[in-house]
């Protein structure tokens, strides 16, 4: 009975037989198409060595794939010399023992084995096995590399995204739409766990969405931020910084080589330049160095309806809109309101009517431990930073405080993106 599930390692390197059982040559690799949107990638043929030449055996000429040999459907083959076509990968050369992205778990896994399945007469790539036991099984004689029903670490191909920059075909690329489902922090973890070339491939894929690319750069650690900006032009580096939050952009600017900083800074929009220059004047471990100068602010007499309209039209990130500062006619901070309070309040109410107690505030010179204690004591997600006249300068978010307070070895959860 023909095999319905076989392992790549049992096919690649096996004898190629004709329909009469006579040896024609040896199977070098299995070819599959990854650029077809039809579910599991189909096997399009075999790369075989016949008479000292690399030949292509089309899938429709393959009668059987098994753990001991591949068999053709005829004794007479009119074969063409192997030539890789756009969209095709060689499963042994391009996939086996290489890292792939498990999009479901946001981890890098290594394909220790590739599983092929026969679906209604068409062989397809079913998935991979990243386990060490699969790698050890390849040491067994070929005829004993049969499929086992116990397959606890099998990863379906639908959850996989392979790196393809090493594949010599222009049509293949890492799928942006699949990576975009992940949180920027998960993508950053993948970049940090990958090799430099793989990290570049991930960033190139997410670069189709410039906002997502900036979000990922914000999540990268300092070392990797500098690594991946080093090879970009000043214009490209400035484009990334321009889309980042001002506080994160200021931090990243300091990671760029000193002789490039002024040139990159001068390429930023004027408003962004002013904000970054202001932040660079503060000690990084103070409230001024931690704060983001972009925040929501409402006049005390602003109606709830108008405040919600301001939220809707704001270009700030959602987490920056969770809290809005209320100022009087002179711009002095009088309190803060949450987005939840605005949504619950009557539309005609004034935002000043929602302030129940004085909001704790700090100066730009306040050091990190005091900021952390105040935010903990008052259970704050964000806290205003004010000048000498109590006018808002920026906002310190709890995630920025946590990032500074956590031990260095915890900050990037090193290794969690790699299996």
Structure description:
Helices cover 33% and strands 24% of the residues. The protein has 419 residues and is of the alpha+beta class. The chain folds into three domains: 1-99 and 107-148, SH3 type barrels (Roll), CATH 2.30.30; 184-281, MgtE N-terminal domain-like (MgtE N-terminal fold, Alpha Horseshoe), CATH 1.25.60; 293-404, CBS-domain. The strands form five sheets. Strands 2, 3, 4, 5, 6, 7, 8 and 9 form an eight-stranded mixed sheet that branches. Strands 1-12-13-14 form a four-stranded antiparallel sheet. A three-stranded antiparallel sheet has the order 11-10-15, with helices on one face. Helix 16 (368-377) crosses helix 17. The longest helix is centred in the middle third of the chain and has 11 residues, at 196-206. It is elongated. The mean pLDDT is 88.
In short:
This protein has 419 residues and is α+β, with helices and mostly antiparallel strands. It is built from 17 helices and 21 strands.
Describe the secondary-structure layout.
Blueprint: E1 5-7, H1 8-11, E2 15-17, E3 23-33, E4 43-50, E5 53-58, E6 62-65, E7 70-72, E8 80-81, E9 88-90, H2 91-95, E10 99-102, E11 107-110, E12 113-119, E13 122-129, H3 132-137, E14 155-156, E15 160-162, H4 176-179, H5 184-193, H6 196-206, H7 210-219, H8 222-230, H9 234-243, H10 246-255, H11 258-266, H12 270-280, H13 287-290, E16 296-299, H14 304-313, E17 323-327, E18 333-338, H15 339-344, E19 362-363, H16 368-377, E20 382-386, E21 392-397, H17 398-405
Parallel strand pairs: 2-7, 16-17, 19-20
Antiparallel strand pairs: 1-12, 2-3, 3-4, 3-9, 4-5, 5-8, 6-7, 10-11, 10-15, 12-13, 13-14, 17-18, 20-21
Helix pairs in contact: 5-6, 5-7, 7-9, 9-10, 9-11, 10-12, 16-17
């Amino acid at each position: 009975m023909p095999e319905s599930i076989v392992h790549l390692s049992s096919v690649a390197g096996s004898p190629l037989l004709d329909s009469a059982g006579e040896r024609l040559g040896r199977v070098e690799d299995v070819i599959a198409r990854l650029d077809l949107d039809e579910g599991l990638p189909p096997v399009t043929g075999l790369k075989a060595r016949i008479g000292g030449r690399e030949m292509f055996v089309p899938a429709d000429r393959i009668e059987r794939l098994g753990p001991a040999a591949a068999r053709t459907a005829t004794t007479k083959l009119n074969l063409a010399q192997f030539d890789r076509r756009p969209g095709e990968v060689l499963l042994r050369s391009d996939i086996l023992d290489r890292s792939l992205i498990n999009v479901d778990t946001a981890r890098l896994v290594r394909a220790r084995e590739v599983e092929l399945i026969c679906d209604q007469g068409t062989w397809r790539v079913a998935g991979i096995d990243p386990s060490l036991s699969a790698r050890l099984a390849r040491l067994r004689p070929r005829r004993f590399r049969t499929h086992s029903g116990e397959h606890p670490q099998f990863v379906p191909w639908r959850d996989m995204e392979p790196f393809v920059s090493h594949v010599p075909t222009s049509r293949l690329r890492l799928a942006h739409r699949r990576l975009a489902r992940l949180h920027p922090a998960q993508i950053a973890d993948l970049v940090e766990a990958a090799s430099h070339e793989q990290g570049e491939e991930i960033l190139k894929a997410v670069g189709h969405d410039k906002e997502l690319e900036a979000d990922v750069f914000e999540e990268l650690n300092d070392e990797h931020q500098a690594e991946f900006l080093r090879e970009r032009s000043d214009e490209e580096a400035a484009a990334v910084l321009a889309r980042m939050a001002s506080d994160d952009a200021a931090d990243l600017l300091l990671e760029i080589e000193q002789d490039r900083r002024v040139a990159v800074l001068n390429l930023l929009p004027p408003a962004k330049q002013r904000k970054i220059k202001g932040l660079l004047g503060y000690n990084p471990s103070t409230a001024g160095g931690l704060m983001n100068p972009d925040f929501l602010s409402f006049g005390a007499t602003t109606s709830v309806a108008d405040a919600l309209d301001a939220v809707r039209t704001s270009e700030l990130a959602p987490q920056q809109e969770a809290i809005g500062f209320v100022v009087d006619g002179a711009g002095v901070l009088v309190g803060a309101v949450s987005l939840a309070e605005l949504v619950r309040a009557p539309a005609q109410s004034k935002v000043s009517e929602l302030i129940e107690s004085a909001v704790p505030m700090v100066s730009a010179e306040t050091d990190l431990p005091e900021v952390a204690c105040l935010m903990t004591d008052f259970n704050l997600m964000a806290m205003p930073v004010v000048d000498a006249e109590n006018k808002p300068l920026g906002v310190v978010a709890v995630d920025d405080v946590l990032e500074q307070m956590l031990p260095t070895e915890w900050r990037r959860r090193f290794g969690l993106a790699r299996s």
